[in-house]
Amino acid sequence: MPASHLAREDRVTDGRLDPSGRAAPGSNLALRMEVSRSDERDDTVLVRVAGEIDCYTAPELRQHLFGVVDDRPIARLDLDMAAVDFIDSTGLGVLVAALQRVRTDGGELHLRNLQRGTAKVIELTGLATAFHVGTSQT
């Protein structure tokens, strides 16, 4: 059964947009998020994140993830990061804060489908042991 769509797609930029509303060339700062809740497990939430997670977009990601977690207790938060092509220390801080928030209610945070560069950053910082890292939602 397909997941039910719960939230909007957010687009965050630093203001460098071309006239059509797209990020200007050389300004790949858009962050998109989509939230869905599994029909099979109501206590599992999937958030698809796309774009760069850096000092420009991390505050919006933090607000979005905390909103999901604070909505009601969840057993598992899955972040599908297949379309995340960059993460900096600010973004890592948001992921750690979200992990702490989820764990407060006894939940888990899973990072899914990491691109090579993002996976390397998670591994080099030692955070791979803190998160459940995998390639799918199962």
Walk me through the structure.
The protein is an alpha/beta fold. It has one domain (4-134): 2-Layer Sandwich (Transcription Regulator spoIIAA), CATH 3.30.750.24. Helix content is 28%, strand content 30%. Strands 1, 2, 3, 4, 5, 6 and 7 form a 7-stranded mixed beta sheet that branches. Helix 1 packs parallel to helix 2 (89-104). The two termini are 15 Å apart.
- Span between termini: 15 Å
- Give the strand tally: 7
Radius of gyration: 15 Å
Written as H for each helix and E for each strand, in order along the chain, the element string is: EEEEHEHEHE
Beta-sheet strand percentage? 25-35%
Q: Fill in the CATH topology.
A: Transcription Regulator spoIIAA
Task: Please tally the helical runs, counting DSSP H or I stretches of 4 or more residues.
Answer: 3
Q: What is the top-level CATH class?
A: Alpha Beta
Main beta sheet: 7 strands, mixed
